[in-house]
What we know:
By secondary structure, the protein is of the alpha/beta class. It has one domain (3-106): Trna Endonuclease, Chain: A, domain 1 (3-Layer(aba) Sandwich). 41% of the residues lie in helices and 27% in strands. The protein has a five-stranded mixed sheet.
Amino acid sequence: MDGANRCRFVDVVAERDGQLLYAEAEGATTTPGLDINTAIGQLLSRMPTNAPHATFALAVRDEPQSVRAAARVPQRVLELLNITLYAVDERGGVRQYLDVFNQRKNE
């Protein structure tokens, strides 16, 4: 499967000013840790090989269990893989990983 076909299976593909974003989104779940690990694996296995300037994202529900599960991924790993973590609340508000990480440290 080539890079273009693999990317058809991510939850979101967005483009702005020639910059591509590939994202997996994790909604309501009874097993956030397992489901978020699965979403990360899906994102990694579907990263295109022919898009050197692409960025990647994982979006989770902005609720404690999902945020804690997603924040287990070390910041260094996210940086190396060019993945940004987002927490999305019920009203559509979005927080980026650093905000989530700082919240985790304070809990």
